[in-house]
Design brief:
It is a single chain. This protein is an all-alpha fold and 160 residues long. The chain has a single domain (24-154), classed as Winged helix-like DNA-binding domain superfamily/Winged helix DNA-binding domain (Arc Repressor Mutant, subunit A), CATH 1.10.10.10. The protein has helices at 8-12, 15-20, 26-48, 52-63, 69-76, 80-92, 114-134, 140-154, and strands at residues 96-97, 111-112. The chain has a two-stranded antiparallel sheet. The longest helix is centred in the N-terminal third of the chain and has 23 residues, at 26-48.
C-alpha cells in the first residue's frame, strides 16, 4: 500500500457516525469507497508488476480489442498523454501490440498479445476478490442495487 494511503480500518472507523449523519454527501462516501478499493487493487497489481492505469487499459482491451490510444484514454478516464505513456510501457513489456496498417504507417487498433492476455487472465480473479473483500458487507442484492444506482447517477448506459 502506498505511504499515506488510509487502511480499510481507518476509512471505515467512523462508519456509524457517517451513516447517522443526515448531511453526509454521496460524493464523500463514493470518494472513500474509491480510495479503499484502489488500495486493494494497487496491492494486487503491485504483486503482478502492473499499475492501475495499465490494468485498466488491459481490461478494456480484453473486452474490446482494437481501440486507439485516444479511445483507450477516454474509457480509462485518463488523459491521452498519460495513456500514451501507458501504451508505450505495455508495448515495451510485450503486453500489447499496435500493428501498422499498410503503407500509411498509421497504427491500427491496439490489442493484447498472448502474453498480455495471460497476465490479465492471471490477475483478474485477484482483482475480483479484492473488490468483493471491500464490498463484503453487502448482500448480493445490495451489490446489484449499488451498481444500478451508480449507473443511473453516472448516466452509464444511457443513449445520448
Amino acid at each position: 500500500m502506498s505511504p499515506g494511503m488510509a487502511t480499510g480500518a481507518a476509512i471505515w472507523h467512523d462508519r456509524a457516525v457517517a451513516a447517522s449523519s443526515p448531511d453526509i454527501r454521496p460524493s464523500y462516501l463514493i470518494g472513500r469507497l474509491d480510495r479503499l478499493i484502489r488500495a486493494q487493487f494497487e496491492e494486487v497489481l503491485e504483486a503482478a508488476g502492473l499499475t492501475l492505469p495499465e490494468y485498466t487499459a488491459m481490461s478494456v482491451l480484453a473486452a474490446r480489442p482494437g481501440f486507439s490510444s485516444a479511445q483507450l484514454a477516454r474509457r480509462s478516464l485518463i488523459t491521452p498523454q498519460a495513456m500514451g505513456k501507458v501504451v508505450l510501457e505495455l508495448e515495451r513489456r510485450g503486453h500489447i501490440k499496435r500493428p501498422l496498417a499498410g503503407n500509411s504507417g498509421r497504427a491500427r487498433g491496439i490489442a493484447l498479445t498472448r502474453k498480455g492476455l495471460a497476465v490479465y487472465t492471471k490477475v483478474q480473479p485477484h482483482m475480483i476478490a479484492a473488490e468483493a473483500a471491500v464490498l463484503h458487507r453487502l448482500s448480493p442484492g445490495e451489490r446489484e442495487q449499488l451498481v444500478g444506482l451508480l449507473q443511473i447517477a453516472g448516466g452509464i448506459g444511457e443513449r445520448n
